[in-house]
């Protein structure tokens, strides 16, 4: 068995084997995926390119651990203690995890640090759920009848992840599955597999038994598709693009596995004329540029009320011009590079398309050129004005630091514009009028609505989508229940009403 290399991620290439059945495979002589830095092209890490046979082996390991191993049979208090040890070890290794996350994603280090802290909190919260989970008892059905509704672990859970929050999005799934007593096969993004593999080593150190969590790195077609097709996987929890979500749904059609789909988004940030405009300005900037704009809940569409639009947009454009682009390890940096060259080209083509559909670029739009950015996949923070509902960029995920601006007259128009895309993941609104806040929040067709805040949350609060943003919920009690099956057990005190009294 070869463990992951424990070396300074800033100076050496990290090499990882697959993590199956409690240990790391040797990675020598295996087809590999090399991750290069989005900042300067430096070689960062080498992951094994897992294939069908590897994935089948990992599923079999998780299956054995579920059907015969101790984890689903361990008391929920013991499972909770293990999850708390995982959280402690994540905190003890926080610097290393955050550095790897920043290296591989290009997100500013302070955001990676908060991802690690948030991930540890999710393990702690899930431990609490494990401790307190219980079923229902029904004693009033009939005098001679008692029934229980119990929650059991759903089985082997597959988890397929994107590249924008590699550790945090895994932590929105895995601790909840483990708390419920499931076993897992994790497939991280081929661009950002480092922290999932590091977490595997932490799980082992915390006492998670062999086979309970397996990590298979590789491409979607070689690993993800096998998880979708497998009848030995009971549940598949996916986070990624809507197009891939549809492919997974189709591939799993021959099985009866449960799916949870956390897909794309195109959130509106609605600013009413009675908002605290300083708060709204800060929130609109954060919504657009947080995590390099590579965020499923990015507030990528500003909807601003006519009566304040001129002054608000003027302040916004000036502020966006001061957003700092550069090395994500520099504490001054607000926006780092795009994840890879192809994605940079996609973002740039969206900017060009928005312009060709009548949008006006008020700030940014180009590629920064200075010593810090010359060899990376950088794009300037960009604001495009006058983007109407007919422009593709009003509807499509850009997934970069690009904000479109559209004006509205009143609340009815704001709601109609916010709901006009096929997505329904999240939305934010800024107003000091409580009646307006509540009535607009209720009419937005999205899984999360923030009022006078944005991209907020806590482990207790479920997240998930409506419409093409998917279904299923992560975090909170709802997120735990996703990984459970409901079983009804009904007991009679002897059978008084015989179905066959003439025979029995
Ligand atoms: P993606 O859909 O390209 O890839 C996601 C994962 O699916 C990767 O691990 C990939 O290897 C795998 N995959 C690709 N093809 C597959 C196939 N045919 N079968 C099985 N697996 C396959 O997404 P991405 O580019 O990594 O991430 C960006 C997308 O993720 C955006 O659309 C974003 O909105 C979405 N996202 C959603 C949420 C949410 O909570 N709803 C959170 C973060 C990101």
Task: Please specify the SSE layout and strand pairing.
Layout: E1 14-16, E2 19-20, E3 23-24, E4 32-36, E5 43-48, H1 52-67, H2 76-92, H3 94-105, H4 109-132, E6 136-142, E7 145-153, E8 156-160, H5 166-171, H6 174-180, E9 183-187, H7 194-206, E10 213-215, H8 220-229, E11 235-239, H9 242-251, E12 258-262, E13 268-271, H10 277-289, E14 301-305, H11 306-320, H12 341-356, E15 360-363, E16 382-385, H13 392-395, E17 402-408, H14 411-418, E18 423-424, E19 426-430, H15 434-443, E20 448-451, E21 466-467, E22 470-471, H16 476-481, E23 484-492
Parallel strand pairs: 1-5, 8-9, 8-11, 9-10, 11-12, 13-14, 13-19, 14-17, 16-17, 19-20
Antiparallel strand pairs: 2-3, 4-5, 6-7, 7-23, 12-22, 15-16, 18-21
Helix pairs in contact: 1-8, 2-4, 2-6, 2-7, 3-4, 4-6, 8-9, 10-11
Bound molecules: nicotinamide-adenine-dinucleotide.
Nicotinamide-adenine-dinucleotide binds at residues 160-164, 169, 187, 189-190, 219-221, 224-225, 228, 239-241, 244, 247-248, 262-265, 296, 397, 399, 425, 465.
């Amino acid at each position: 068995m070869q463990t992951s290399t424990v070396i300074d991620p800033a100076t050496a290439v990290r090499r990882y084997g697959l993590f199956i059945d409690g240990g790391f495979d040797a990675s020598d002589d295996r087809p590999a995926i090399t991750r290069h830095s989005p900042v300067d092209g430096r070689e960062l890490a080498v992951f094994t390119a897992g294939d069908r046979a590897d994935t089948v082996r990992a599923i079999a390991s998780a299956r054995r651990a579920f059907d015969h191993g101790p984890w689903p049979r361990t008391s929920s208090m013991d499972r909770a203690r293990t999850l708390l040890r995982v959280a402690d070890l994540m905190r003890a290794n926080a610097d290393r995890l955050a550095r790897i996350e920043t290296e591989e994603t290009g997100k500013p280090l302070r955001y990676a640090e908060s991802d690690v802290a948030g991930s540890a909190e999710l393990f702690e919260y899930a431990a609490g759920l494990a401790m307190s989970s219980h079923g229902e008892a029904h004693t009033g059905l009939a005098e001679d009848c008692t029934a229980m509704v119990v929650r059991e672990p759903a089985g082997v859970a597959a988890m397929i992840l994107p590249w924008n929050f590699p550790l945090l999005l895994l932590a929105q799934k895995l601790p909840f599955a483990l708390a419920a007593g499931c076993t897992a096969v994790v497939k991280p993004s081929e661009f950002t597999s480092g922290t999932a593999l590091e977490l595997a080593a932490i799980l082992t150190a915390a006492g998670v038994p062999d086979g309970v969590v397996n990590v298979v790195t590789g491409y979607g077609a070689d690993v993800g598709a096998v998880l979708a097709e497998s009848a030995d996987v009971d549940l598949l929890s996916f986070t990624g693009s809507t197009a891939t979500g549809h492919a997974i749904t189709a591939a799993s059609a021959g099985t009866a596995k449960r799916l949870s789909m956390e897909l794309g988004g195109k959130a509106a940030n609605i600013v009413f004329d009675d908002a605290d405009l300083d708060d709204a300005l800060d929130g609109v900037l954060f919504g657009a540029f947080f995590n390099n704009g590579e965020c499923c809940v990015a507030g990528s569409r500003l909807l601003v009320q006519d009566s304040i639009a001129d002054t608000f947009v003027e302040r916004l454009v000036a502020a966006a011009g001061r957003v700092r682009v550069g090395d994500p390890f520099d504490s001054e940096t607000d926006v780092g590079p795009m994840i890879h060259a192809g994605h940079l080209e996609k973002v740039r083509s969206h900017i060009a398309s928005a312009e060709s559909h009548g949008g006006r670029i008020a700030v940014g739009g180009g590629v920064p050129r200075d010593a810090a950015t010359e060899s990376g996949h950088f794009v300037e923070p960009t604001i495009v004005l006058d983007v109407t509902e007919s422009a593709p960029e009003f509807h499509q995920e850009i997934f970069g630091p690009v904000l479109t601006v559209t004006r509205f007259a009143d609340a009815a128009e704001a709601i109609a514009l916010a709901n006009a895309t096929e997505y329904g993941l999240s939305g934010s609104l800024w107003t000091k009028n409580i009646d307006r806040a509540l009535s607009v929040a209720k009419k937005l067709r999205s899984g999360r609505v923030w009022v006078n805040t944005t991209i907020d949350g806590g482990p207790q609060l479920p997240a998930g989508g409506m419409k093409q943003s998917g279904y299923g919920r992560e975090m909170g009690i709802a997120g735990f229940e996703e990984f459970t099956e409901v079983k009804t057990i009904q007991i009679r005190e002897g059978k008084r009403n015989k179905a066959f009294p003439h025979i029995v």
